[in-house]
C-alpha cells in the first residue's frame, strides 16, 4: 500500500496531496512496465482495482494513468481493459529518463545508448554548424570555448558544457536536434552529480571545445565534427567508467 506522509501533506492543499499520491501510483506502474513485469498487450488491473490494491483514491489513479498514456506506456479504451503498450514501439524521448533511472538506479545499457546517440548527434551538429552558423553564433561558440578552462567547479563547467552544446545545436539549424536537446536538459540538470564525468579532467577536454569552435568559425565541417566527436567520446568513456 502507498502510505503518504500525512504529517507533511496535511499542511498543503488537497490538489497537491492528490498529485503526490498520483506520482507514486505512476511510479509503481511505470516501473512494472519498464522492468518487464507487465508485457506488451497484457491487461492491467482496472483503475478501480488499482485504487483498492494501492490504497489510494480513484482521482490519483486517473491522473497516473493519464501520464502513462501520454508516455505511450498504456492504452485505455472505453469498455475495454487497460493494456500495456510496447514502449520501444510507441514511446518517445520523454521515456528516456524513466528507463535510465528505473528501480532507483542508473541503467548502464540505457546510459551507453544515450551517450552514443549524444556523440553521434553532436558530431553531426558540429558539421552542420560549420556550414550554417551565423557570425554571431560562431563568436559565441569561441567565447564559450575560451571560458571552459576557467570554470570554477564541476557545476560551472557542466553549465558551460551544456551552453556550448546548446549553441552548437542552434547553429546547426535543425529544429529536430534542438528539440532533442531540450528534451534531455531537465534530465541532465536534475541529476547533474551523476554526469560530472562530462567535465572530469577539464585540462584535457578544454582544448577540444576551442578546437571545435575554431573549426565552426572557419567553416571547416570535417575538422569541427572530428573535434566534437573526440570530445564527446572522451566524455562518454569517463561517464561509463564511473557508472560501472
End-to-end separation in angstroms reads 34 Å
- Multimerization state: single chain
Number of domains: 2
CATH superfamily of the largest domain: GntR ligand-binding domain-like
The CATH class designation of the largest domain is Mainly Alpha
CATH topology annotation of the largest domain: Four Helix Bundle (Hemerythrin (Met), subunit A)
Point out poorly predicted stretches: 1-16
Instruction: Label the CATH architecture of the largest domain.
Output: Up-down Bundle
Description:
This protein is mostly helical and 244 residues long. It has two domains: 6-91, Arc Repressor Mutant, subunit A (Orthogonal Bundle); 97-243, Four Helix Bundle (Hemerythrin (Met), subunit A), CATH 1.20.120.530. Helix content is 69%, strand content 2%. It has twelve helices and two strands; from the N terminus they run ααααββαααααααα. The chain has helices spanning 6-9, 14-34, 47-54, 58-70, 87-90, 96-100, 108-132, 135-147, 154-172, 175-190, 202-218, 221-243, and strands at residues 74-75, 83-84. It has a two-stranded antiparallel ribbon. Helix 3 (47-54) packs across helix 4 and helix 8 runs antiparallel to helix 11. It is elongated and about 60 Å long.
